[in-house]
Amino acid sequence: MRAWLVRAGRGGEREAWALGAGCTGGGFGGVADLGGAVDREAVLAAVRAAKPDAAEQALRNFTAQLWALRSRMAEGDLVVMPLKSSGQHLAIGEVTGGYRYSAAEPDVDRRHVRPVRWLVTDLPRTVVKQDLLYSFGAFSTVCELSRNDAAWRVSRLAELGRDPGARASTPAPKGRREPEEAPDEVADSAQHDVDIARYALDRIASRTIEEFAGHRLADLVAAVLTAEGFQCEKSPPGADQGVDVLAGTGALGLGEPRLVVQVKSEAGQVGLPVVQQLQGAATAHGAAGLLVAWGGITKQAKQYLSTQRFTIKVWDSELLLERVFANYPALPAELRAELPLRQVWALVEDG
What we know:
Largest sheet: 5 strands, mixed
Shape: elongated
Structural class: alpha/beta
Strand content: 15-25%
């Protein structure tokens, strides 16, 4: 069994289609049907015909990806699709068949696919360890995840919802060695250009939860709310009946908006009971609720909150970090020392 990274468009524009249709994320528009391309040179010829003005390195990169999709993937392999639409989630599926080309599909970017049975579609990135997250940051549409015991760990993520980390001794894949691969084969995602912005955000998230695990995350949330103009009262560690922070505006902290804040620092998603507990506490205090759930919330909780739009808001790890970035200069010096950040500008390279 191997594991593969697949993407569904630079902005995730094909994600809903891929999940709904049960297939990989498409791409490679304009390249003809590869059903008869029995070797890499035939794939390269098809790519060259579709992109006659492309540089040779770009042609070979496209060829490597399409050859992987066409011939190197196998039934039973796992695929990981980082979801741009939500930013914080991953989908994991199992390849269930061979390469197919949907000639009747009007969108040329939806023609080259493998059928996939999606096993999980809302896995939080927060449950994945940093070394594996780095591999998930490759820009390529298709590439293999082979380092750091990736295939086994992806299978554990799909089954258990958590990343156990690499085993001390990683067994070599059986039966499908490819020593004859061309020298330009880019086999592993770690060899590809990486989304630096995504990598930086994952590193900051990792450092944040290391420094502010457990009840300390409430300290960070209170500091952010204070920087945004709230007067905050924090509950001590221990049982809090759904209240970690009380926040209000004005000199005495009694003005509106008033917030009852519940903070959950676990990597996994929290469910409906937490949301309902917060709702009860907010109602009792005559305030709105803010749920800070580092790993996000379950589908059931999201569905429930769709009818509570003006009573409870949710910040997952990415939304909390957005507020940290927006208010960073106003945060206490001791907190900034624990989470040292520096803003930089980088040139956006064309794909």
